[in-house]
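Recall from the previous lesson that a structure prediction takes nothing but the amino acid sequence as input. Here we apply that procedure to Glutathione peroxidase from Parageobacillus thermantarcticus. The sequence below is the only information supplied.
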Amino acid sequence: MSIYNYEVKKPNGETVSLSDYKGKVLLIVNTASRCGFTPQFQDLQKLYEKYHEHGFEILGFPCNQFGGQEPGSSQDAVAFCQRNYGVTFPIFAKIEVNGDNAHPLFQYLKKEAPFKGFDETSANGKILKLMIMEKNPEWLVGDEIKWNFTKFLIDRNGKVVRRYEPIEEPIDFEQDVAALVNA
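The prediction returns the following tokens.
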């Protein structure tokens, strides 16, 4: 089993097979337009521009499960990303990443790259954990996605290599992307 076994929808409802991305390094991200982590779009776009021609893709999946921070339509999410951050990587239809209605792709990603804890040596790690404890304590248990901008790095064979939590900025793991792209 790999990510190539899954299908996702574009904002217009068209189905896309992730097998279309075979042979590429992928970064799969659950996103939101009104989140404190939303400025990560800027560095995600920079990563995309730097490595895209070398077989790197970023796939964004808007999600409204965390603080209601993606309240509009899928089309609204795409327009926001393009208008405010110049995003040119694909943004797909809104999905759920946790709970009974979690998209099968994210169920798979969570199983393949379990949650390893918060970096509580950083202020952002402590703040995020406290915020989740207050708003969605059920997500602190197990491998659930903890918040917007959880990122999964996938190798050219469709294998999940690593999970990055929301506080991990794209600049922090650029070397991991470069290593896979150049492998």
